Amino acid sequence: MTNPKPTWRFVLPLVFQTALILSIPAQAVYTHLSGQTVVLQTVPVDPYDLLRGYSQTLRYDISSAETLKLLPGWETVLTKQDNGEKALIDGTQLYVILQEPVSADNVSPPQAWIPIDISRDRPAELPDDRVALEGTAKNGQIQYGLETYYMPEDQRLSINQYIEETLVEAGGERPFVVEVKVDREGNSAAGSLWVGDREFRF
Amino acid sequence: MVSEKFRHQLRQEVEQWQTEGLIDSLLYDRLAQRYQFNTLESAARNHFILILLGLGSILLGLAVITFVAANWQIWTKEVKVVLLLSLFMGINAAGFYLWRRPTERWQSRAGQSLLLLGSLVLGANLALMSQLFHLSGPAYELYLVWGIGVLAMAYSLRLTLLAVLAVILVALGYCSGFPNLYYSVDLSQLQPLLHHMPLFASIAFIPLAYWCRSRWLFGMSAILVVASLEANLLFVTFSLFDLSSGMAEIVAALSCTLPPALLWAYRDSIWERSPEATPRFDPIAKGIALTFLCLLFYILSFEWLWRNLPSPGFGEIPAEALPILLDALILGGFALYSWWKLGYQRSSIWRIDLMTTVVGAMILIAGSVVWLHWRIEPLGAIAIFVFNALLFLLEVGLIREALGTAKRGGFWLGVLLMVLHLMSRMLEYDTGLLFKAIVLFFCGVCVIAAGLWFERYVRVLART
């Protein structure tokens, strides 16, 4: 019994499948290569704020609408609803403009960038010390695609311990920042995680 | 080609005939050659090996996925990507090589298992890539992309095994993505696929089922088409109920009528070019249509459901409902065409047989009652009565049809449905314990009696 199928009948779908696999990191790789490094301040997700499983769920101060409400362009991202009131509806795409902090060069740990503006359209021109980060409104929060950070399982315990110690040392401060890359289009990709003055990169 | 079961039985019979002297050894040899008795053992063994190989490759695939998920941290990202891709390509290439040019039968089987394993590794690769680059996205995207990848390979190689895996993956993707239709706007580029799942499943899987000549694949694809159509229509119904008064009841009626109408009138002959070469899938579609009706009538026969149904409001059709309605429109058109073709199957004037008339009438009545309930006025007791009567009619019809054809499955489905129906009504309405006891007693007696009677007379009659 033979199956006289020509080789292309196998190669063509295999190429397609490989393209599917590679298309997933393509955007992230492009952003990593061409993007500008930006530092984001995180906020606690749950009271214990430790790693669960092998991934850490991250929230940033710019994830919450409460923080962004104070920015000048907030009105532009709201949509008028049936009852006449304006609200941030799910699915709205927006850009948060972040500015590099003064004297941020070579500080360890790096200082978080500061949100200075928000707009519905991507700004055409920005000075070198500013970037526009693309986000999407969902369930009253803004998502940037940077919300999950995967960690090696075998290092979880030691990282957890380190986080606990650092949190106690820091008192009320939150010494958790994430380095990300942001490209011209506003796409972002997670880089490394800073806890106190230690950098974790996976 | 006759079935393996028949050949087994025939061999037993023929051996008996030979010992009884009814046939001589020459005739025995000729029969043995014609029905290839000598391959029967090896066929059974091959089935067994196939099952073992399939099971083995699924376990191996799971092992690969677990291994990968256990986060092996020794290599850098680039090495991991290269390693994963070469594993994926290596397994697939080995599978294809063995499957295409087998020198022995086991090689073809091993090749198929390796190709199945390759398809599982595809999923592991997809999941791991997003993990390596810290990408977060909904799980249904992974299933859908994975399913589409496997589907491409299944089409190209015409492999039933891969096609079945693709149906399962796409169905999983639809199920886990369904809440995204309900709760929030989802910006995923694959969301349109959820809206158009009925159409996508019809176009992608039904032709493949014919091409692979697989009854299982057809059944699973048909269930995916109908289930996604039903779920989407119910989603539209309930999102319209707060908004529009004109459309809601039409969509509600459609959700009760379109799936069974589509399946019942479905005929292989719609596609048929040469009747001999096309496999027969009509009975499967009819079976699913009847199952759908059983479920529908059973659910709608409950009193609390009719008391607690929401009433329609006023407003516009939401934009997200439009693609779903487009699918319903296209499949509805196809259903109408199938019914039109069905009427001309045997005669030059439009005519359908008794059973089709009854099923068609049932579907129409169900749709009209649902429509009237919201359009004109709440029907309450009338609707409950109608659906109980329809369910009873369906049970009787199933039993009668099974008696006519001496098929055990339909008979038992009818009897069990009737008992379930009776019990549900008894438990639903406030009846005394003594009455419950009497009903249970008679149900038990009737089921036993019916079973014994069916086995004793009808099967015997059918055999003679």
Keywords for this structure?
heterodimer; A: 202 residues; alpha+beta; 5-stranded antiparallel sheet; 4-stranded antiparallel sheet; B: 464 residues; GDYXXLXY domain-containing protein (chain A); GDYXXLXY (chain A)
- Total strands of chain A: the figure is 13
Helical content of chain B stands at over 70%
Mean pLDDT of chain A: 80
Number of helices of chain B: 19
Please compute the radius of gyration of chain A using only Cα atoms: 21 Å
Name the structural class of chain B: mainly alpha
Topology order of chain B in helix (H) and strand (E) letters: HHHHHHHHHHHHHHHHHHH
- Main sheet characteristics of chain A: 5 strands, antiparallel
Approximately what portion of the residues of chain A adopt beta-strand conformation?
A: 25-35%
- Strand line-up across the major sheet of chain A: 3-1-11-12-13
Give the overall shape of chain A.
globular
Oligomer: heterodimer
E-strand count of chain B: 0
Estimate percent helicity of chain A: 10-25%
Biggest interface pair, counts: A-B, 43 and 41 residues
Radius of gyration of chain B: 27 Å
Describe this structure in words.
The complex is a heterodimer of chains A (202) and B (464). Chain A is 23% helix and 31% strand. Chain A has 202 residues and is α+β, with helices and mostly antiparallel strands. In chain A, strands 3-1-11-12-13 form a five-stranded antiparallel beta sheet. A four-stranded antiparallel beta sheet of chain A has the order 7-6-8-9, with no helix packed on it. The longest helix of chain A has 27 residues, at 8-34. Residues 47-52 of chain A have low confidence and may be disordered. By secondary structure, chain B is mainly α. In chain B, helix 4 runs antiparallel to helix 5. The longest helix of chain B is centred in the C-terminal third of the chain and has 31 residues, at 433-463. Chain A binds chain B through residues 1-5, 9-10, 12-14, 16-18, 20-22, 24-25, 28-29, 54-55, 89-91, 93, 136, 138-139, 145-155, 189-190, 202, and chain B through 70-71, 73, 81, 84-85, 88-89, 92-93, 96, 99-102, 105, 108, 122, 125-126, 129-137, 145, 148-149, 152-153, 155-157, 184-187. Chain A: It comes from Lusitaniella coriacea LEGE 07157. Chain A: This is GDYXXLXY domain-containing protein.
